[in-house]
Every structure is written in C-alpha cells, then in structure tokens.
Specification:
heterodimer, A: alpha/beta, 8-stranded parallel β-barrel, 4-stranded antiparallel β-sheet, 20% strand, B: 442 residues, alpha/beta, 5-stranded parallel β-sheet, 36% helix, globular
Chain lengths: 434, 442
C-alpha cells in the first residue's frame, strides 16, 4: 500500500486528506471523531476576535441541489464563523493537538483588517501548539458585509497587507484561503505570495442561491420568508475549483506556490485530480457533511490503490503532474483530428446521441429504421457531445485519425506536425512558424 | 373453519386477514420518492422504442419526465390524451411484453424502467385530485350507440362524447366495465378500481349507460343502425370453448372466466369456495389468473395443465413466474382426455403430447391428477356477430374498425386484428371514435 504521508509546508500528516474549516471542525467533539475516523488533518473552524462571538440565524442554514435519487450535488450555507467563545475554541484546539500530535492542526482566523486585531489573536493561536494558520479571506456572506472574509479576498492589497502582518507576528506556516468570487484568481494568489504566504488554499464557497420556493417566492434556505445568497460547495463546484487551482499552478508568477486544494472533493479520484493539478494536499467538507467522517476511508484506500497501480510511492510524486498539460486554447493542436465511433455491441439504442447531434450539433449521426446509430465521418467534428450524453460508458469513443489519413469532412490529409492557432492562416494575428 | 387440506370444494380455507393480504395490490403503488427514483432511470430516448411498443402510443418518455419534475398530473394528461383507461392499463398491461420489453434498459441491464408503475403513479395522482380532466365540445346533437361497456366501448364512448356527440352505451351485464370489472385478477384491480374508473370517465358528460341489454337478445343491430348515426360494437367474447373431454359435465368443472367473475364481485372472500386440488386447463392469462387466485384462496395444490410447451404459452414469462412464485405448478405438454369421478370430479386424466413439427399429437401415455375442481380456460368465442362479415372467428374490420356494414364499427376482442388486450381494445375504441367523429363531421 502506497505511503500517503504528506509533508505540506513542513506540516506532516498521515494522509493528504484534511477537513476544511467548516461546521465539521467547529468543536473538539467533532474533530476527535474525525481523527479517530482517519482524517490526516483539520483546519479548525474560523475563529473571530475576542469578545462576544458572532450569532447565526436560527432557521435553515443550508440549501441543496440534487441529482438522481436525491444525491447531493451542491450545498450552500449561510452559516458564519464559529459562534463559540474564542477561549473555548483555543482550549479545545490545545487539548486535541496534544492528543493527536501526528495530525495536522491548522487554525482558521478572521478578524478585522486592523493590525492590532491580528497582533492580538496570533500569539494566542500560537500558544495552542497548532501547526499553522489559514486566513479566511473567502467567506462570501455575513462576514463580508462587515469588511472581512471575501471583502478582503476581493482586494489583493488587503490580502498582501494582512498576510504580511501574520508572517510578522506568527512564526509557523500561513495559508491564505482564496475566494472564487473574483474575476482572476491569479491576482489574489500573487498578492498572498507577495505578502509572504507559505501557501494558498482554494476555493472557498461561491455566491449562490440554490433554489426559490415558488409558493412563498423566497430564496432558500429561507429565514422567515427571506433568503440571502450563501456559499456554494460540493461536487458541483469541483470543475470551477480545479480550473482556479490550475491557473495558479501554471501562472509563472505563482508557479511553485504550495496549494491546498478545496472544492467538491468527494472521492479519492477527485483528490488525485486536484493533486495532479498542483495541490500538495486537499481539504474536504461537503463529502463529510453528506456521508459522515467515514468517507475518508475510501479516499485513503482508493488513492493508495491507484498510486500502487501507477507505481507512485509518494503523494509528492503526483503533485503537479498534470500542470504542464494545462495550456491556453490557442496552443491546442489543430492538426489533431478525431472521429466519434459507436460500438454497436455496446449500444442500447436509446438514440440520445442522435437527438443531441441532430438537434443541437452537426447532424453527424445516422439512424436506421432498426435503430442502428452510425457516425457520419463526413460531418463529425469530434465535438464529444455524443460521448457525453451516451448513458453507456465506453460505448462511444473518440478515435484519433492517423497522420496521412484523409479527413472525410474537410478532404484534407491529417498532418503529423503540431500546429496551433497562433500560426493558423485564418488568424489575423498569426505569426509565421519559425 | 376449513384449511387448505380440507377435501373437496370448501370456503374459508384461509383466515380473512390472510385473504385480504393475498388479494391486496400485486404491486404496491409507488411512494413519491420511489416514483422519482424510478423516473430518474428513464433515458428520454429519441423516438423511444417503448412508445412504439405501446398499442395506444402513449408518449412515455414525456410522461416520465413530467413525473420527475414533480408534475404527475401533467404526466397523467399525457397518458390520458392517448389512453383514457391509462389507470387500468397501468395495472393490467403485460408491460413485460410491451413497453418494458422494448425499454433500452431492458436491453442494457435486464431491468427496464418501471413504466407501468410510473403510469399508475401519474394516473392515480390525477384521479385522486381531479374529477375529470377533459372538457366536452359543444353538443352536436348527433347520437352514437356503443354496444359493450368494456375497455373498447368505454374508450370509444369517451372520445365520441368529448367531441360533442351523445353516446348511449348498452351492456349485457348489470354494471359497466366489461373485463376490467369482471375478468381480471382481483389483485390487479383493488379497491373497486374498475368501477371508480368508469365513474371518473363518465365525468366527460354526454354518456348514458343502459345495462342488461345483450346484443341478439334485448338489442337488435338493425334497430341500432336505424336509431343512431353510428354504432360501435365492442361486445367482447362472451362464449367459452368446451374441453370436449369425457366427464366435462361433472360437478366441480367450470369455466375459469365465471370463477374469476364471481371472485371479482365477491364482497366476502371467506364465503368463496375453492377446491383442495385444483387443475386449470389452458395456457393464457385467464388460466394464470384462475390458478393464482385459487392458490391465494387457499387451495392446497393448483396445477395449470397446458397442452403445448412453455414457449407456446400465451401467458407471458412474467405471468408464468408469478404463478410459480405463488406455488402454482405449471405442467406442459399435457392435454385432458377424461374427467373422472362419481358425480363430482375427483381426478383428471391427461395425455402427454408431443409435436414433431407435423402438429400436436397425443403420445398415448396418460397421467391422472387428483382434482376436486377443474377450471376450463381454453379460450373465449364470439356469441353474436349481428350478421356482419367475419374474419375467422371475429368480426372483420378494416381501417379504424369499420365493419362490412356502413355506419357500424367494431373493436376490442370481438373484432379482428390486434391482441386481446385491454390496451389494444382502448386503442381500437379510440381510433374508431375518431373515425366516427370524422364521419359525423363530414
């Protein structure tokens, strides 16, 4: 079984699966259960400044999006940071860390954008023996209205400034958690790096309204007939998160900056994908909130099995393996030509490929009276829609054409050489190939 | 109280609670979440094979999608637009031979989308909520006679009435419904569904039902043709084929359809007698319905004896499995030759058969089964044709049910073409109605 031990910023954990700062990590009781279940680390739910803690709503905090059979695909929440006294949290963190020295213990913090506020809290956090801190610059609701959370994360200068204070007043790793509610995630990541951040973690939740109650006309979750946008997370946000992670990983300015990946990680495979895109570890919340802490056991066994099968001996070996293959559209090989192919043995004759192609794409699938579906190579642009809508995995495949073959759609010979848009004759800005 | 072991024909072989349980819904209706999960399995196929397989052409992918989006009432409208008896068809259709057999998931996994149960979910939801979902067109003053208040007749009457014509339905029985009311296993139509469906269907208005009127007795076709603009015959198959075996007249030998009818109309199942050793002769749905219900009433041994092999049995594989699961023995290649007993039947003698390709022949070897009750289920016949041209043993029809006589249409089991199924009868009734309407509007 592959060794899943992870060293992230010098913080060791038995596996790369940490629980993200969220309701599952709000109390000693939960965190002890998480560690007993096998989680490699936790990011304790965000602490606020000394004084009366925040209050939460007393009605529904979560809203959901479902797939078939009420499978939870997306969750949103309007919960705030911890609503328990600071001292209580600090005492609990100290006790748990002492009892689980081999697990990563990170403390999430969110206090006002004033140097003194950070100066006050950081030594108290340091005294817990925690392994590092995570700056919550991402929470999109409630706290942002008070100038914290996403309100900081949306202003790169604030990120840099606060990060610098933290590095100044705290001597262990500082992770900056980024909000996705911005247009270009590279900017806040670069700001964190300039401020001296040891790592970034992303994504925090996305502004969202999950549903509207059509009887009361209130967004849900509804509090006495009104709703507010919440933070969206769960499997539905994974593609957005992975894109943002990859942007940071391949941006020359931030390349090499350690990343803790967050966003819809539900299985070992999700985790492996985030790691391949440059994450040194991953953080999980919705999967645990949906299925309980036990899900980590599948993540551990699955990742080990896959690593064994691939011959990877450490998580470190996987980190960033896919990053060189993430590129811009303009660099994609336009001489690569594929055609859809339907396996008649696997086809169950539902006709979804036909409807999709005929109604919404390129009329490249023929249907016979006996419901045999066949790709018309002369029309097929290899868009992949038929593959995506086919209910049978592996029934329709995209088969690359070999160089030298003639593409029946264009009548052109498939070239062996790579050529992209930058040199394409149709590109007004094309530069001649050297 | 008697038990399954009590010899002869006896009532109350099982306690009332057991009987109630045995004759409850064969398939419990879907709870809303079950329906949602079942609906989610539908792939929404293009030009879906299930629709092609449905004799009434219900847009199945559409109604299932309407269920999955939380509008089972709209789903029901999609169903009723094509099949006004969609509620009964959801219960009695041999879906395993029709839509569910054609379902691509049957091909893929051997587990089709449960179309029948989903249809029931939709139709039950609407029928529980709404008195009647269609509005009748302004009255035309035209009069149409429908003979037979079974599925074909009711479907025709509804469609004709909906277009504004006045309909009089004549039926030989004391109440409407035809085979839905008298001829289907009780566990497929619980809580008096057939009668409730008739009442609901009549909500369209413009339909009068006259019972106790049998064609060839109280009714004469010539009079109907004279008195109405159009006549639709849907008289079914009222006669029963004879075994033509020695001893057929012994006590304890009866027609399966009569037994099924008596059972359907019984208000107290503990008062309904059944044999200890029951033998049903036949290979169709009627044979299965009689055999299974005998078993459920408490018969100790029930055997279906069919003269041909399993592959020729007209009862579907699903029905065969159902019978077997209830403890009915299926015996193939055995034909009755004699019924023995002193006054009442006590044994049936069957001859083994074989077919080497030149036709079914007895082998000369016989076997005797203990039997204190024998049900004949070897097919029904037309009792009267009103002097119309015949196609084999049924009234000849062309197009949308047109008979050899102008102004007279026929459909359902009495007419040629199509399988003898409720759903086929509904389709024929509906199509004849549209043809009649077109003729009346011309």
């Amino acid at each position: 079984m592959a060794d899943l031990t992870t060293d992230f910023l010098g913080i060791k954990s038995p596996n790369p699966f940490w629980l993200a700062s969220a309701p599952p990590t709000d109390k000693e009781y939960n965190v002890r259960r998480a560690f007993e279940a096998g989680w490699g680390g936790v990011v304790w739910k965000t602490l606020g400044a000394e004084g009366p803690p925040v209050v939460n709503v007393n009605g529904p905090r979560y809203g959901a999006i479902y797939g078939a059979d009420r499978r939870l695909l997306g969750l949103n929440n309007i919960e705030l940071i911890t609503d328990r006294p600071l001292e209580t949290n600090l005492e609990e963190i100290t006790r748990v860390k002492a009892d689980y020295p081999d697990r990563a213990m990170i403390v999430s913090i969110m206090v006002p954008c004033e140097e003194q506020a950070w100066k006050d809290i950081l030594p108290r956090v340091a005294a817990t023996g925690a392994d590092g801190i995570e700056l919550n610059f991402g929470c999109p609701h409630g706290m942002s209205e008070r100038g914290m959370g996403a309100a900081v994360g949306q202003v790169p200068e604030y990120i840099e400034m606060v990060t610098r204070w933290c590095k100044q007043y705290y001597d262990k790793p500082v992770i900056v958690k980024l909000t996705p509610n911005i247009t270009d995630v590279r900017k806040p990541a670069a700001a964190a790096m300039r401020g001296g951040a040891d790592a970034v973690s992303l994504i925090n939740t996305i502004n969202s309204i999950t549903s509207v109650n059509l009887d009361t006309m209130s967004p849900e979750p509804s509090i006495d007939g009104k709703g507010s946008h919440g933070g969206y997370c769960g499997p539905a946000v994974k593609p957005i998160a992975m894109s943002m992670v990859s942007e940071i990983a391949r941006n020359p300015e931030t390349h090499g900056l350690p990343i803790s990946g967050i966003g819809g990680i539900t299985t070992w495979r999700d985790a492996a994908e985030f790691i391949s895109l440059g994450c040194g570890n991953v953080q999980v919340c919705t999967a645990a909130m949906t299925y309980g802490f036990k899900v980590v056991q599948e993540m551990i066994s699955g990742l080990s099995q896959w690593m064994d099968e691939k011959g990877y001996t450490s998580v470190e070996e996987v980190v960033g393996r896919a990053v060189p293959n993430v590129t811009d559209w303009q660099y994609l090989n336009l001489n690569y030509v594929a055609k859809a192919k339907i396996s008649q043995d696997d086809c169950i004759k539902c006709g979804r490929c036909y409807a999709a192609c005929e109604d919404t794409s390129h009329q490249a699938i023929a249907m016979s009276d006996d419901r045999t579906f066949r790709v018309i190579d002369e029309e097929c642009v290899a868009c992949n829609l038929c593959v995506d809508v086919c209910p049978v995995e592996g029934c329709i495949t995209m088969e690359p054409m070999a160089p030298g073959e003639v593409d029946p759609r264009t009548g052109k010979v498939v070239e062996k050489e790579y050529a992209n848009w930058t040199t394409h004759p149709n590109n007004p800005g094309a530069v001649a190939a050297e | 109280m008697s038990t399954p072991m009590t010899p002869g024909i006896a009532k109350a072989r099982l306690p009332a609670e057991t009987l109630a349980e045995n004759f409850d819904d064969l398939h419990a209706p879907f709870a809303p979440h079950e329906a949602a999960v079942a609906a989610d399995r539908c792939y929404f196929c293009h030009d879906a094979p299930c629709v092609t397989a449905c004799p009434t052409d219900i847009d199945i992918p559409l109604f299932i999608r309407q269920i999955s989006t939380g509008t089972p009432e709209a789903a029901a409208k999609t169903i009723f637009d094509q099949n006004i008896l969609g509620g009964m068809c959801a219960r009695v259709c041999p879906t395993e031979d029709l839509c569910e057999q054609a379902c691509v998931r049957e091909l893929a996994e051997g587990k089709p989308v449960e179309i029948g149960r989903l249809q029931r979910h939709a139709t039950d939801t609407l029928m529980a909520k709404q008195s009647h979902p269609y509005e009748r067109a302004p009255e035309t003053g035209k009069k149409v006679a429908v003979v037979g208040a079974g599925p074909a007749g009711m479907a025709c009457a509804h469609r004709v009435a909906m277009h504004g014509h006045d309909v009089t339905i004549y039926d030989a029985e004391a109440k409407a419904g035809g085979l839905n009311e008298f001829g289907i296993a009780a566990y497929k139509s619980t809580d008096d569904f057939a009668a409730r469906e008739v009442d609901w269907l009549l909500g369209i208005g413009g339909i009068t039902i006259k019972t106790g009127m049998r064609l060839g007795e109280q009714l004469v076709l010539d009079d109907l043709v004279d008195g109405f603009s159009a006549v639709f015959l849907a008289v079914g198959l009222g006669g029963v084929n004879a075994l033509r075996s020695a001893g057929e007249d012994k006590e304890g030998v009866r027609d399966a359809v009569d037994f099924i009818k008596e059972l359907r109309q019984a208000s107290d199942l503990t008062a309904l007698p059944v044999g200890r050793d029951v033998v049903v002769i036949g290979g169709g749905m009627t044979a299965v319905d009689a055999a299974v219900q005998s078993k459920l009433l408490g018969a100790q041994n029930v055997t279906i004896a069919y003269r041909r092999g399993r592959e020729s049995m007209s009862a579907s594989e699903y029905e065969q499995d159902l019978a077997a699961s209830k403890g009915v023995r299926l015996m193939f290649n055995a034909q009755p030759v004699a019924i023995h007993g002193n006054g009442a039947v006590c044994e049936i003698e069957l001859e083994y058969t074989s077919d080497d390709g030149s036709g079914l022949k007895g082998t000369g070897e016989t076997v005797r089964l203990a039997a204190d009750q024998v049900f004949k289920a070897i097919g029904q016949t037309l009792t009267t044709n009103g002097g119309l041209e015949m196609d084999g043993r049924k009234i000849a029809v062309t197009g949308a049910g047109r008979t050899s006589r102008a102004g007279v249409w026929a459909g359902g089991d009495c007419a040629s073409g199509g399988d003898d199924l409720t759903v086929t009868a509904v389709a024929e009734g509906r199509d004849a109605a549209m043809d009649i309407h077109a003729m009346l509007s011309a």
